[in-house]
Amino acid sequence: MKTKILTTEEKDIREAAKIIAKGGLVAFPTETVYGLGANALDADAVAKVYEAKGRPSDNPMIVHIARASDIGQLTPMLSEDIVMLIDNFWPGPLTMVLRKKAGIPDRTTGGLDTVAVRMPDNEAALRLITLADCPIAAPSANISGSPSPTRAKDVIADMDGKIDAIIESEDCRVGIESTVVDMTGDVPTILRPGIITAENIEAALDKEVRYDEALLRGAELTGIDPQLAAEGEGAAADGVNGTAGGAAGADESGVAEGFRPKSPGMKSKHYAPKAQMTIIEGRRDKVKSEIERLKALNERLGLKVGVILFEEKAFIEAAHDFFSKLRDLDNEGVDLILAGAMSDRDGVGFAVMNRMLKSAGYNIARV
Ligand code: TXA
Ligand code: MG
Q: 314, 350, 351, 362 — which has fewest CB within 10 A?
């Protein structure tokens, strides 16, 4: 298939919208990462997204809308909390899991009785949805299992020849995917952390927000207790039981065997670079010197080593740069990536660590 490269000009977005309306696939920019879009109400179109990504078809998609009032097509009832979150965070990097209305294809929601919805904060994306005149289902526009694309060139690298068109735009502002919060239970529950933190949501709702158990399980490995972080308390940095090299009794995703995460996306290995990757966690000075030591050791034996070490408190920048760094290092052909853990209890740092852990297959060494 020949993939058309389009711009964010009105005539190009019109063309892209026509492709979507006819059941085709278009990659488009959002503020978080690039998405791979199809008409969310067209089961055949959605099936093609799974095919292009090579994604397991039980993994549900996020449905993107351009006006808050379009939410009524997707869910039968809005609670006060849902409306508060819309008012506070849309358009923006917050996805809500809601009860699903009949008529949304099972293909879109992976057969679940819920649907994930968000309104992206990107002009081209909003225009595309409006002109296509349908909600757009869009996972990240990468081949399943590889780092999410935050630049047009990353989308082209993964999707050229597999989809109808790509809308090229600037690099994504946020750099990690939206926060996913499940609003179907009594307590709002974060299924995927992002730059809108539990604390932000708690402040908007004036009530407690939880993290899904699968996230806490992953976080145990890092010494970060996001639940305590959300409550504004400091968690004990030490006294963490995990050992270097991954958690015992967990599968490759770090999720305990027999545990069924609510968000199917949590269970599969994600964001993996081609290189072997190890996270070094501990006091900043020790992390630095351990990375230097391992780098020198491996380079002496002929391996090409890449390093990811963000400024200590620069969580927003880390979120912005993480996926593109992974891709750059892969393109340079490194054999090994050594990454310094973001070991602060800030919610954004936790969201970056969530991606870092998955990328490294939960391979973490403590110093
Ligand atoms: O920022 C984003 O959210 C990007 C851009 C393109 O909008 N999209 C994105 O989509 O990250 P994707 O498919 O890569 O991730 C969607 C996540 C997955 O972890 C999936 O399991 C979860 O949302 N999800 C989708 N629908 C769900 C549902 N009904 N219940 C629980 N989790 C759901
Ligand atoms: Mg994805």
A: 314
Closest CA to 138 of 20, 51, 35: 35
Find how far residue 88's CA is from the centre of its chain.
21
Q: What is the position in ligand 1's atom list of the atom closest to the CA of 93?
A: 1
Classify the phi-psi angles of 302: left when phi > 0, otherwise alpha if psi is within -120 to 50, otherwise beta: left
| Nearest C-alpha neighbor of 146 from the set 215, 219, 80, 52 | 52
Q: What is the pLDDT of residues 17-53, one digit of tens each?
A: 999 999 999 999 999 999 999 999 999 999 999 999 9
- Give the orientation angle of helix 123-132 with respect to helix 10-21, to 10 degrees: 50
Q: How far is the CA of 188 from the centre of ligand 2 (A)?
A: 22
Alpha helices, H only, 54-165: 80-89, 106-109, 123-132, 152-159
Of 49, 50, 62, best ligand 1 pocket probe by most atoms within 8 Å of the beta carbon: 62
Looking at ligand 1, which atom is closest to the CA of residue 178? Answer: 1
pLDDT in tens, 225-284: 555 444 443 333 332 233 333 333 333 343 333 334 455 555 455 788 999 999 999 999
Q: What is the reported pTM?
A: 0.89
Q: CA 85 to CA 71: how far, in whole Å? A: 13
